[in-house]
Structure formats: structure tokens, C-alpha cells
Amino acid sequence: MIVCYICEKVEPTITKFRAHLQRHNVIGELKCPILCCSCKSSFASIHNLFRHIETFHKCDSVGSCDVDKVIPSHNEVSSREEMDVCGSDVDGLASDNTAKAVECNPSEFYEDMCAEGISLVAGMRANSSIPFSVVPDVVQSFNQMANSLTSLLHAETANCLASSGIQSHIIGDVMSHLDERFNMARQPLDFLSSRYKQDNFFDNHHLAVKPESVVFGTNFCSQSGSTRMTYETFQYVSVQKTLQSLMQNRAFVEIMLQDKCTPGVLQEFVDGDKYKTHHLFSDSTKNSIMIQLFYDGLGVTNPLRGHSTLHNIGVFFYTIKNVPQRFNSCFANVHLLAVCYSQDIKKYGFDPILSKFAAEMNSLSRVGFAGTFPVIGEQVIYASLCQVTCDNLALNGILGFVECFSCDYFCTLCYASQEEIQTCFREELFERRTVHAYNQDVNQLKTHQGKKHVRGIKVDCRLNEIDGYHVTENWGLDVMHLALEGFLPLELGCILYGLCVVDKIVSFDTLKSALQQFWGKITVEKTHKPLELSKLEEPGQGLTPTMKAMQYWTLLKYLPLALGGFVAPDNKHWLFLLHLSHLVDLIFTPRFTQSMTTYMRSVIEDHLTMFVDNYGNNGTVKLRPKHHFLVHLPSIVLKCGPLVGMSCLRYELKNSFFKRSAHIVCNFTNICHTLAYRHQQRALFSLLSNAFCRSSPVVASQKMVPVSSLECCVVLCDKLGVVPAEYVSVAMKLCVATIQYKLSDYIVIDVCAQSGDPLFGKIVHFVSCSHSTDWYIVVQCLKTVNFCAHLHSFCVCECQPVVYRILTLDEMIDHHPLYCHSTVMNGIQQRFIRTPYHLFKP
Questions:
Q1: Which DSSP letter does residue 223 get?
Q2: Domain final residue, candidates 77, 104, 131
Q3: Residue 502 has pLDDT above 90, yes or no
Q4: How far apart are CA 525 and CA 355, in angstroms?
Q5: Backbone angles phi, psi at 378, to 5 degrees
Q6: What is the 3-state secondary structure (H, E, C) of 519-558?
Q7: pLDDT by residue (tens digit) across 418-454?
Q8: 3 state DSSP class of 754
Q9: Confidence grade of residue 114 (pLDDT, cut at 50, 70, 90)
Q10: Distance in angstroms (rounded) separating the CA atoms of residues 838 and 213
Q11: Together in a domain, 529 and 612
């Protein structure tokens, strides 16, 4: 007997409970991961949960689970009595369940099959690896199996009655009665048996948001000897409809309402000056939603084949800045705005798309939309654009600036020239773009029709029509393209060339061997392992081969640990590497203070000066435009919060979905419509399955052990209020979103109040009590000896006597698992931990 955590309904068997959960899943009430309370294992899907129950907790007599409730891991359980099984008489359980099964309305079983089928079809349609044409075949097979099973039951029933000596006319009456009852079960998913029926069913779901076709213009095409007029369109997804759909979900509203402000700390967009001065966002009497817009071009076909650019597309995404940063990195929290052909953008420009978006933003900021929403009740919701973030080329294109970075006036924030960026390393040395100067440049551009641009401005951007937004006040730069794929590979190439070729500190073969040995030891970030270097290019050429952004970042982080033993502390190339590491740590810091931004200005100026002194004196290597963008970063932090909130990494994750979908579909008649529609089907499934809320841990396997058997028994008893004889659940690994924590990983557990150095701990256990759904991380505390500048890492050692500490997931200072590297320094075996960025405790 199992009790539903949502509606408290008691279901007698595993089969009934599975179907019951599927009904909640279909209407978006199911919260994942789901926890088996008997053993604390948690699962991301209903299928995995019930496979576990059938394997480990099935009662042979009645097929029911020995768990009391199956609830999500983040659901609060106030007392153990709430989870007790109704009726503890084991001997009478089978008869009770049989009686309940007899009393059940047969139509409930049909509803169970429908719910299971809807969940199956929705999941397949959300999967980019499955063509929609396959889904009807699966449904037909499902119906055929149901029909065959019904016929089998019909025949077996007739045989059993005949073998029991029942008269033939009675058997005929029973069979006729069963035919009527079995009629619905013969084709349970007939309402989803075709592509048309499936589209109609899911398009009419109250949470579904369909893309609409908007006309760019007309064109004439010839086919089969005849010429006809065609419409060139783009696909647009209404922001208002998307927001209305999202706001119907209680969990989404709750994460939007989380308090994100800490006095004196900049960690979200709401902490910046732009939020405080915006006419809508700063109005505390209105419920406003902040939109961050993104655009990028994307190739969906094989670039090595002919006509590879024919079906290139442009995609517009956006995120909601009211949602905390840790949730916005989720695939489900990146929402689609528009999809169009890249050729159409070249022909018509961005104006048709941006005009429609601007009109909707003005409507939402002035009128909003009203409704009754979970948690907040009946309210009017407003929304507006707060920021545009793209790679540098796309940002200049969408904002109407020149897309050539080898000319003057390439910057969207100032009037920088190529000559000035070589010698000026502070923001105040450049003339800032203002609204007044922008309008003058636009007027001059309109007056002189022959000019292609005036001081970098090609066209008046349509986004300026949005209330409270202007392109000259768009304080946003993508640090992924700026740093990780920008100046970072360029400077790493200069550093390694200087160490291996110029100073001959290490040979190229020794460099590759040291990196290979290091990656044989490391226990984290295995998926971001850098590619093996094939050769060292001359300064200014970067690294060969090219890598992904995360691979460049990982190489920078661990290069000091891998090569520190070969290089003297006073080598200029090594000192520049350490300074580069320090700068990147500051850029990707998730929290800032006012004083940190001031310090960051000095670090950037020093870094650019060092680069010119080391590699630019003879004129062989010049500063790139991405070097210049560094001078604006401190001001951007003050205006809009940490730079990681503007990173395009989260948006780039969507590329794989579109590329895989296009490869699977293989129909390019209107690939924009196809991709937009499939994306919205995925968005519906994500909303129904609460995929946007990923703060709950998933534990695949665990075991029950007495507290007394653990070396941290005393700490557990004090912290969790348990006794040594009590049993607790202990797991080997724990997953939160895409982060996996394993035993022997290291994490930051605190920050020293005196020195500001982070304090580390080694994970020894993952523990959960029987009376709670929370998981705790037990760590063995380490002592931070000092910060080793030569390795850009913290030297640590074990505490004597051993000290244990218990943390919840929310108490962690940083969510990254870390690697502890053991090496010989100054003739002593020492241990070092590299943090991914600068950390402090808010």
C-alpha cells in the first residue's frame, strides 16, 4: 500500500501507483527527482524509480512496495507518522488489496493506460534523437499489444469458464458482456495514433506555446518550369505566452521569488545600478520580469559537404534574470524567441524580428498581463528587456554597429580606435558613447546616404524603441567569447612559446608529457580535458589545435600545477601566466564587492601593460579588440552584476539540440519551422516534468548502516540528532543537476575570517536520516597552510586530530568539486588545491 505525496491518495499496488504518478506527470504536478523513502535512493524518472522498487522492495504476495510513501527528495516531511502505512496487519494485506481492486472503477484502469501513453509520447516528442514519424508507429504497436492482450484475456476467460463446467449460454452472455467492457482497452491510445492527432493533442495543452510564422517578405521561385510567389518567413514564439505558461507552475514562481540580494555584494542583475535606475524594474509596486536576449548564427548541416551554408539559421533565445544564476544555466530555462534563415537576415536585416520583439516588450512593460498565479495569487505581471548578450560579432550586428573589428569605432560602449587600444588601458581614457552622441551619429548617417557607417554605427537599432532600453547603455559582454575563446588562447600560445622555444625552460615533448601525466591523475573535469598540443605557433597565432571554451579554461587552471616544478619563480613568461590566471579568476568570480571592481581595474591595466612589455615591444604581437573590451568589465559588473551572468555558455548548449534534430529530421523544406516546433515540444515536456528546477540531489544507490559504524559517529549524533544504534542511509556518490560529487572529492566548506583563504574538506560520506529527506555531505576538514603563488594554488594539509564537518548542499561556499594534487616542492611532499575562481563568503 503506497500513499501519493501529492494528493495523499492510497494506492494498493505498484502498478496502480505508477499509473497514478503518470497522471500527475501529465498535468505537470510531478516533482523530480523522486525518492524511495525506504532506502533514500532517488531517481530522475518514474521508470527508474519503479525498476528499483520491483527489484529491491517488491512484496511477492501482493506486488506492493514495502515503502510507506514515495516522495520527491526536496519535499518536507514533518513527522514519521505521516509516512506510516495505513493498516499494519500484514496477514490481512492481501485480502484488503484484493477488495480494493474489486471496488475500483474499471474506467480508472483505462485512465491509467492513457496517462502512461501520454507520458510515453510526450517524452519521445521531446527527444531530439527521435523523428516524429517514428512515434505513431510506437503508438500503433502499443495499441496492437493491448488489443492482443485483450483477446488473450477474452479467450482464456472463455476456456476457464468452459473447463469449470459453466453452461455454454452463460459463457456466451459473459463473453458478450466482456466484449463491451474490453472495447475501450483494445485501442487505449487511439487518440494519439497519428501525427495529426498527436499534434492536435499537445498543441491544445493549456501550457503549450506554439511558434507562429511571421512574413519577412515575398520572393519568386521557379520549379518544374513554372514560377510562383513564395513567402519568406521566420518563426516567432510569443514572450507573453511563454511567461504565462511558466507562471502557472508553482515551483517556477517560488524560485523567481527567492531573495537574491546580500547588502554590499554584487551577485545578480538586481544588485547592479541598471536595475536600480530602470523605470520598471525599480518600481517595487509592480511585479516585473527582466529579459536577457541572445542571438547567434548556427549551421545545422555537415559543414564539410556542399551547400553547407544553405540552411544556416539564426536563433534568438532569452533567459529570465529574476531566476537565480544557478537555475539559469539549465537547458529548460533558456527560452526560444525566434528562428530564421541566415540568408533572410542578410537580405532583410534584423529589423523585422526586432520590431516584433520591441512591440511585445512595450506592451508587456506598459500593460502587462493579468492572471491568477500560484503563490502570488491574482496579479498583473510586467516584463521588459534588460540586456542583450552575444558573441562580439553578433552583438555588433544586432545592435547596428560595424561588424569589422580591424577598423576604428568597433566598440559598442566607446569610440575606441585601433591606435588607442595599443596604449590606453583604462576606461576613462576613452570617449564613452552616449544617447545624445548616438542620435547625432544616426542623423549624420541618414543625411549622408553614401556613408556605410558613422563612427561605427551602421543603422539605428529597433531595440531603441523599447521603453527604458538603449544600445549605448547595453552593459553586457560575453566572457566566454571574450576570454575563453578570445585573448586566452592567444596569450597561452605566447607563454608556452616563450617557455619552450625562447627560454628553453622545458622542451615541447616534456610539456606534452607533463600534461599527459597530470591528466592521468586528475579526478575532476575529465570531460573538459584539453586536446594534445600538436605544435607551438609563434606569438600571436594562438594554440594548435583549437579547442572548446571549457578546454581552454581547464588548461589554464591546471597548467601551473603541471609545469610548476620545471620553471624558476622569476621567469617573465611564468609570471605572466600567473597574472593571466589571476585575471581570469576575477572575471569568472560569481560575487563581487565595490572594492573588488576597483581592484579589477588595476589588474586589467597591469595585465595589458605586461602583455605589451613581454610580447608587443617589437611590434610582432598587437593587442586585439578583445583585449580592449577588458577595460569595460569593471563598469559592467557595477551596472549589471557578475560577468558569468552574461556568459553565452548556457545558450551554446542549445546548439546541440538543433543540430541533432536537423540531422534526425532530414527534411529541409522549412527547417526553421521544424526546429522551432520541436523545441516547443521539448519546452512543454520540460515544464510538465519540472526540469527547470534542479536543486534536488539524485542518489542512485545507497545502503543502510548503523551510525556507530561510521568514523564520524559523534558529529552525526550532534548535528542530526540521531543515536549510535540508529540506521542511516549512506551513498557512494550524489548528483545535483549536472554536478556529480564522489567520495574523496574536495570542496570549499568555508572561508577563513582572518586571512580570507578558503577552507577545504575531503568528502568521506553522503548521509541521510530515516526521518528526513535531506542529504548531508560529511567532510574531513583540511588546514589551509598558505597560498602558493608559484602554483597559483592553496597548500593544504590534514588536521590533527581529524576533524569532521557535516554540510547541507546550501551551506557549500562553491558547488564545484575540486582536485587535490600531490607534488614535491622545495624537497617536501605537499598537497595543493586549485580553485576555479576567486571566492569569498557573502
A1: E
A2: 104
A3: yes
A4: 43
A5: -80, 115
A6: HHHCCCCHHHCCCCCCEECCCCCCEECCCCHHHHHHHHHH
A7: 999 999 999 999 999 999 999 999 999 988 877 888 9
A8: coil
A9: confident
A10: 46
A11: yes
pLDDT for the residue numbered 67: 39
Domain with 61 in it: 1-104
Residues 560/577, Cβ–Cβ less than 8 Å: yes
Q: Is residue 190 part of a domain?
A: no
3-state secondary structure of 713: helix
The residues that bridge with 341 in the sheet, in sequence order, are 313
Query: Which helix H or strand E contains 471, and what residues bound it?
Result: none
Instruction: Tell me, yes or no, whether 611 and 701 share the same domain.
Output: no
Examine residue 407 and state whether it is found in any structural domain, yes or no.
no
What grid cell was written down for 381?
505581471
β-pairing, 746-751 vs 739-742, is: unpaired
Between 70 and 371, the more confident residue is 371
Per-residue pLDDT tens digits for 537-576: 999 999 999 999 999 999 999 999 999 999 999 999 999 9
Please name the residue ranges forming H helices in 533-624: 549-563, 572-587, 594-611
- What radius of gyration do the chain's Cα atoms show? 31
Strand partners, 592: 266
pTM: 0.85
Indicate if 637 and 653 belong to the same structural domain. no
Let me know whether 654 and 635 are in one domain. Answer: no
The residue that leads in pLDDT, 690 or 290, is: 290
Q: Are the C-beta atoms of residues 536 and 606 closer than 8 Å to each other?
A: no
Q: How far is CA 524 from the centre of its chain?
A: 19
Q: What is the mean pLDDT of the chain?
A: 86
Condensed to tens digits (0 to 9), the pLDDT of residues 178-228 reads 887 787 788 888 899 999 999 999 999 989 999 999 998 888 777 677 877
Q: What would you measure as the largest C-alpha separation in the chain, in angstroms?
A: 108
Q: What is the pLDDT of residue 77?
A: 33
Q: How far apart are CA 412 and CA 395, in angstroms?
A: 9
More confident residue, 113 or 817: 817
Return d(Cα 732, Cα 560) in angstroms, integer.
Answer: 31
CATH of the domain at 715: 2.30.30.490
Q: What burial letters (b/e) apply to 526-542, b meaning 16+ CB within 10 Å?
A: eebebeebeebeebbeb
653 and 771, same domain (yes or no): no
Q: Three-state DSSP class for 425?
A: coil
Q: Residue 413 domain-assigned?
A: no
Q: How many structural domains comprise the chain?
A: 4
**Residue-wise pLDDT tens digits, 475-494:** 999 999 999 999 999 999 99
50 within a domain of the structure (yes/no): yes
Whether 368 and 359 have beta carbons less than 8 Å apart is answered as: no
Is the domain of 5 the same as that of 76?
A: yes
Map grid coordinates 576567486 to a residue. 838
CA 138 to chain CA centroid, nearest Å: 30
Q: Are strands 369-373 and 69-72 parallel, antiparallel or unpaired?
A: unpaired
For residue 236, CA distances in Å to 326, 347, 359, 679 come to 27, 18, 13, 12
Q: What is the pLDDT of residue 566?
A: 92
CB-count exposure of residue 745 (10 Å: 0-12, 13-18, 19+) = buried
Stretch 632-647: mean pLDDT, rounded? 94
Q: Rounded mean pLDDT of 773-777?
A: 88
